[in-house]
Amino acid sequence: MRKAMIRLAVAAMLPVAALMQGCEHKDLCYDHSHMTDLRVDFDWSAAPDAEPGTMVVHFFRPDGSLYKRVEFTSATGGIARLEAGKYMMLFHNGEMETVHEKGEQYDEYVLTCMSRSLLAPMGRDGDAPRPPHSENQPVTAAPEPVWAGTHAAIEVVAKTEGQSVTLKPSEATAEYTVEISNVENMSDGIELSAAITGMSPQYMLAEERHGGVAATMPVAFEKVDQHTLVARFRAFGHCPEGELPHTFTVYTSSKVYYNYDISGQMHSAPDPHHVYIEIEGLKLPEEGTGMSPDISGWEEVVEIEIPMN
User: Which of 5-19, 23-37, 97-111 has the highest mean pLDDT?
Assistant: First the structure.
């Protein structure tokens, strides 16, 4: 009787043991034979001065849905391990602080600028008067340099070695320079920042163009000398919704601000990828004058229209 009970117990345990053995085998020896290595190379001939920290490639299925995001730690490329099949690709540099990725569909995928305080370049979070015609515009950071592109289609063949694809990024951002000359009362006691209206906060990779709702972008100043200020920044473009007015507003820590209408120079720029704006004359408040930053209320200097070059 005892031997029969032991045999019965062992028999009852067999299905469980077999199941456990099957699970363990599947977990440790999972069959990856359907996965294939694809070598991804980046050709930087269209942007030889680019120095991205990482590169991101999004693989989309033929129906437009996202299959996989792969980030390469080298700008030269690397290996992507994929299932056999057909893919469309969108790619751009990664590790960006002011730009984030958005979208799960090929046609809807965008890079978009993050929100930012209007006085952030001055190191302040308080409210400030909005530039003219910008009351409904979101305030976003200017993007870092972005290099991006699209590759229409590739087929990854199962169990085939040596497959590769070469992707050719180009710069998706344009460079803007605003120079103010003949500045009066420049001093270390007055902090400065600026904002520009009517800018594009998004880049649509599949269409390779800028877009989105027109935004206002705060930008920082560089003091070139005692009479010259320069703001250098990038954007995906301007006038995403048709031709729009552009105001360049200078803010001071004395709560005096200046509006310059730069629409003419923006719209007539000969090179849309390297836009240069000239502003002549800026009389800053003398050090120690103006309202204290902790008191509400700003003083506006009359808006000045800047003629076209």
Answer: 97-111
